[in-house]
Amino acid sequence: MLTLVGRSFGRTAGLFAAICIMLAVFEIALIAVAASFTGANDFARLSLLMSQLLPGFLQSAFGPAMLSFGAMTTICFFDPLVVMIAVQFAVFLATEPAGEIEGGLVDLVLARPLPRHWLISRSVLVMTAGAFLPTLAMGLATWLGLRMLAPAGAHGPEARVVLLMMIHLATLSWCFGGAALAAAAWSRRRAAALAAVALSSVALYLIDVIGESWARVLPLARLLPFHYYHGAAILRGTANPALDLSILSGIGVVGIALAYWQFGRRDL
Length: 268
Hints:
The protein has 268 residues and is mainly α. The protein has helices spanning 2-35, 42-53, 56-62, 69-72, 80-94, 96-103, 105-110, 117-149, 159-186, 190-213, 218-221, 231-236, 241-265. Helix 1 packs parallel to helix 8 (117-149) and helix 6 runs parallel beside helix 9. The mean pLDDT is 85.
């Protein structure tokens, strides 16, 4: 098992480092931008400008983050691009079993007296690391950036808020990673499993965005994973972390359970 895990980490170590560094640098840069708003009424004017120029759903999604220095430093945790990077990275890592089937490596591995479920367990461990390490890097970057760049007298974000956003983002990524692992357990081509879940995640995110601005779509959006991580709701204090994290982790657990079941019964 350790050999399989080490091999997977060895193949993706550069990608792990690149994503963690990129997101950490983005967070520090965002703190520097927030620190540039030093005037007494800068954030009030920014909030007013947003209310005049942006549509309602964008105001709802990002308006609370423009009210103070501390709130603005948390945007990185729910920025759409960051969310997509985190989700797609977990999806990529979770589809490794399909790649091993496609390349014939699974035949060499299972020629030894090894339980086939070890391949799924390996991918669960690697995918979990891929879901949580980037958010941990962002959290450390937040702490470091605030110590280096926060203006005198400025209040940073509450530790509880940052921690909740980190856990939500990591759990959301893990949720889609579980779905990707299930897809990989059915597929013989990694590209097919990767494309199916990756494109679905983008489509589901867009439906959630539409649901925030169109009441007719909102009931559908409530059935989707992205509905259970809105950074603005955490900033407002209206989020229900217990419900959100239970649903996201439950979806991931179901996906992983399906992956174990299907991979154990399929003809490799």
